[in-house]
Amino acid sequence: MAIKKFTQLPNHIAIVPDGNGRWAEQRGLPRLSGHQIGAENMYHMINYLNEYPIKYLTLYGFSTENWNRPKEEINGLFQILEDFIDKTVAEVHQEGIRLRHLGRIGELPRGLQRVINKAVELTKDNTRMTLNIAFNYGGRTEILEAVRRIIAEKIPPEDITEEVFASFLDTAGLPNVDLLIRTGDELRLSNFLIWQTTYSEYHFTRVLWPDFDKKDIDKALLSYSRRRRRFGGL
Ligand code: IPE
Ligand code: MG
Fold first, then answer.
1. Closest residue CA from atom 8 of ligand 1
2. At 20, which CATH number?
3. Residue 132 resides in a domain
4. 184 assigned to some structural domain
């Protein structure tokens, strides 16, 4: 463990693991093999970050806009997540990691819903680290649904503080994102955690997600540790 070189570490890291498709295409492989390797890399990253005192890790697996992809790729992504949770849940639980899901679970295939719900239930009392899987997640949808619930519950307008509003989001109870990492050479947020990243530090890298390794995450952590966060103050 190389904690010593960091003067500050993020409490909550969010990752947009982009570049699976290009990684596969560069090798003449089907895009789904890139997603498969990408899922394996998530497993390595979870284990590696679990060595640090980082309490929250949020991974963007599937956005509400990813439904625009070909059906075959979408179904492949669903299968990959299902297998991934199936294969790793026992170990994740043993490591003291709590799994949470962010997004609209009801639109996912039944089998995948079941696997997610089972894993969430099994790990709900774990406290070492919380791993949030954003799957069929979109920031705008999340905010709209919060507004709908607030109205349905007839909360008086003057009671709606930032804290109250945040408690209606999928991320209720989670701290804001400290460090947002995006791989794959794209400089955008893509509807990810738009409420929760207003004062995040951003780290973009050209490295494609399947190639993103320990030295790359350490680079991101080192960059974060050098930032001066002022939150609009001095
Ligand atoms: C990111 O990889 C994974 C998901 C969006 C599910 P991409 O599939 O976006 O890979 P590129 O951007 O085409 O390389
Ligand atoms: Mg992409």
1. 21
2. 3.40.1180.10
3. yes
4. yes
Compute, in angstroms, the gap from residue 126 CA to the centroid of ligand 1: 30
Q: Reply yes or no on whether the pLDDT at 8 is more than 70.
A: yes
**Is the residue at 149 inside a domain?**
no
d(CA 150, CA 168): 7
- Supply the range of the domain harboring residue 107: 8-138+175-225
Whether 154 is covered by a domain: the verdict is no
Residue written as tokens 């990243």? Answer: 197
Q: Which of 176, 98, 166, 108 is nearest to 137 (CA)?
A: 108
How confident is the model over 111-126, as a mean pLDDT?
98
Average pLDDT over residues 2-28: 92
18, 192, 209: which to mutate for ligand 1, most atoms within 8 A of CB? 18
Query: Is the confidence at residue 128, as pLDDT, over 70?
Result: yes
The pair of three-digit structure tokens given for residue 191, joined into one six-digit string = 């509807």
pLDDT digit string (tens) for 154-198? 999 999 999 999 999 999 999 999 999 999 999 999 999 999 999
Number of domains in the chain: 1
| Closest ligand to Cα 209 | 1
